[in-house]
Amino acid sequence: MIGILIPVHNEEALLGECLDAALIAASHPGLAGEAVQVLVVLDSCTDSSAAIAEAFQVQRLEVQARNVGHVRGVGARHLLNQGARWISCTDADSRVAPDWLVAQLALGADAVCGTVTVDAWSEGFDPAAQIRYNLAYQARDGHRHIHGANLGISAGAYVRAGGFEPLACHEDVQLVRNLERCGASIAWSHSPQVITSARLEARAQGGFGDYLKSLMLAS
Questions:
Q1: Residue 179 and residue 173: Cα distance in Å, rounded?
Q2: Judging by DSSP bridges, how do beta strands 94-96 and 194-196 pair with one another?
Q3: Is it the case that residue 31 has pLDDT exceeding 70?
Q4: Does residue 118 carry a pLDDT above 80?
Q5: Could you write out the DSSP letters of every residue in 142-161?
Q6: Neighbours of 139 (CB within 10 A)
Q7: Distance, CA of 95 to CA of 118 (rounded, Å)
Q8: Cα–Cα distances in angstroms (integers) from residue 183 to residues 24, 105, 156, 162, 178, in the given order
Q9: Read out DSSP for the chain?
Q10: pLDDT value at position 81?
Q11: 3, 21, 107, 183: which could form a disulfide with 79 (CB 3.0–4.6 Å)?
């Protein structure tokens, strides 16, 4: 079984599109009928995220942590206990491509670090900041970006690396560093595609939204 892990904190505006995309990827014919379990881990949600998730054929867990590393760790353990051989991570403000899972698995690595494409720049986002982002971002194979919105790990490598640490931010970066220390094979690929939002209201302090905000402040 393959698991798709999605942490959620107050994502009512974007969660429906995220789950639509994840379920399409889960039914891709290239998976040859292998079961895929989509897991939503709702963390301290006070909006309608839970109700939105209930409308989809996905599993749901609820925690009160306000800590994305803890949330990803809880979700990964749940999927491993269900027999997942591979865990694909994305974010609730992102939409994975239909062949996302197929593209990750085709790389034959212990872990896959994919790139992200910004969907639509937020209204008022400084064009100069957009240029700075595009100049710095490596949308190609061999990049060195790490995104929780586009990350895949085999069950064995995940366990050997010790799993997600309960960090409020950069839990994905820490996991990849631990994977490297364990000697895991990592594919730094532009093939698995994910579209993510350009919102500046970051759910995790120090995350992608704060990075985009820093580009604005540099103007």
A1: 10
A2: antiparallel
A3: yes
A4: yes
A5: T-----TTSEEEEHHHHHHH
A6: 11
A7: 10
A8: 33, 19, 12, 13, 9
A9: -EEEEEEESS-TTTHHHHHHHHHHHHT-GGGTT--EEEEEEEES--SSHHHHHHTSS-EEEEE----HHHHHHHHHHHHHHTT-SEEEE--TTEEE-TTHHHHHHHT--SEEEE--EE-SPPTT--HHHHHHHHHH---STT-----TTSEEEEHHHHHHHT-----SS-HHHHHHHHHHHTT--EEEESSS-EEE---SS-SSTTSHHHHHHHHHHT-
A10: 98
A11: 3
| Whole-angstrom distance, CA of residue 194 vs CA of residue 89 | 11
- Which residues make Cβ contacts (< 8 Å) with residue 52, sequence separation at least 6? 12, 15, 16, 19
Q: Which residue has the tokens 């400084």?
A: 126
Q: Within 13 Å, how many C-alpha atoms sit on residue 175's CB side?
A: 34
Task: Return the exposure string of 83-98: e unless at least 16 CB atoms fall within 10 Å of the residue's CB, then b.
Answer: ebebbbbbbbbbbbbb
Q: Where do the domains of the chain lie, and which CATH numbers do they carry?
A: 2-217 (3.90.550.10)
Give dist(CA 133, CA 111) in Å, integer: 25
Mean pLDDT of 20-32: 98
Q: Are 22 and 6 in contact (CB under 8 A)?
A: yes
Task: Please give the structure tokens belonging to residue 31.
Answer: 């998976």
CA 57 to each of CA 3, 22, 26, 83, 134: distance values in angstroms, whole numbers, following the listed order: 13, 11, 11, 19, 36
DSSP letter string, 63-81: E----HHHHHHHHHHHHHH
